[in-house]
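does this look right to u?? 4AD version
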Amino acid sequence: METIRGWVLKKREHGNIIFIDLRNRDGVTQCVIRRENVSNEDWSKAEELTQESSIILRGGWRLEDRAPRGREFVVNGIEIVHLAETPYPLGKKEHSPETLMEKRHLAVRGQRYQAIFRVRSEILRASREYFINNGYVEVSPPIIVTTACEGGATLFKIDYFDIPAYLTQSSQLYLEIMIFTYEKVWCLAPSFRAEKSRTRRHLAEFWHLEAEAAWMNLDELMKLEEELVSHICRSVAEKCQYELKLLNRNPEELLEIEPPFKRISYEEAIMELKREGVNIEIGDEIGGDEEYILTKKHNKPIFLVGYPLKYKPFYVKELKDKSGMGATVDLLAPEGYGEMATGGEREDNIEKLIERIRGEGFDPENYDWYIDLRRYGSVPHAGFGMGIDRLTWWICKLDHIRDATPFPRLYRTGKMI
Ligand code: 4AD
Ligand code: MG
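got this back:
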């Protein structure tokens, strides 16, 4: 005798047979209750079962081609652990995005979310595995900070015992500190951006995977990123086949994500956009709409190399052979998704750095600790940051980033859970 436990997803009654789709950590299992196989008392229990009731079934497995996983559970005993109230607030087939946000605590039980967050968990596991295998030391950065990293406009201010402080936008500056101890470091931490806009790719709180390495240049950085992303895609393709099928993402597409990724310069990207009919000139920003155009025809991520310094934060190093251009690289996901990661070489000329900090309207005094790194044993170095939510969004082929994370934080969402 075996048992299976979980929650009632669906119940279908056909005279003397009741089919239960039972939901648990393994997905959905078809369970068959035949009147002749159970006591009268258990048959009545089966009849009264409601959606999301928690139950324990006794019985045995039988091969069945038509069942979702090729086998079904034949029941001969039922224990109701909790009979769920009716109606279940998410009992209908389709629900609006607003309802799915308001009832997030229940929505996360749904099969689609179960698949997405399982993939997300695999993305995190594979990332950690990659950094461990490649000699990176994991560090824990602070969340409460007193300096901006990505400009003043998107800072969330908090009151820290009467001192003005912020929620971190990026752990980069702290990773830069730690390279002088370990040379190769990484972290996984939440980052916050007070993005006052509603887009399909912006969250106010996101999980940020960041790495930084001493002695590293732009080429080596791109190799690191393409190896990491390929490792993640391979792991997801191998370990999440059931989930990917449910999400209509063919695992073969992920297995094709292998180094090298195409590299295009900022200037080449502008030329390509012009060919596509976009009204854009050298010196302009390449935003989300442009990234869509650049990536929609690709099946593999591409690197966008170099970017006008005037749009970039103070820490970005100027390209040696192109004045006014930053030594940065954006990793753009294919199929129209666009930016997944930004990284680059860091400015190590102390005068330029101070001037650029002032240029952003910040007081270099507040960055004295960061500037010290250029005073005591400065080394060329580079790093990047990648949004885990963005990566999940692309890998799971989702429409909106809010579905890439269980409890999204968005601009003016209404009720927050
Ligand atoms: O491009 P960003 O702003 O770069 C940095 O923060 C650097 N300091 C990273 C570094 O070099 N260590 O952010 C990096 C990535 C983006 O490419 C994107 O994937 C994600 O973080 N990201 C967001 N994801 C969701 N919602 C937002 N509002 C995001 N802002 C950035
Ligand atoms: Mg960026």
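The chain has a mean pLDDT of 96. idk if thats expected tbh
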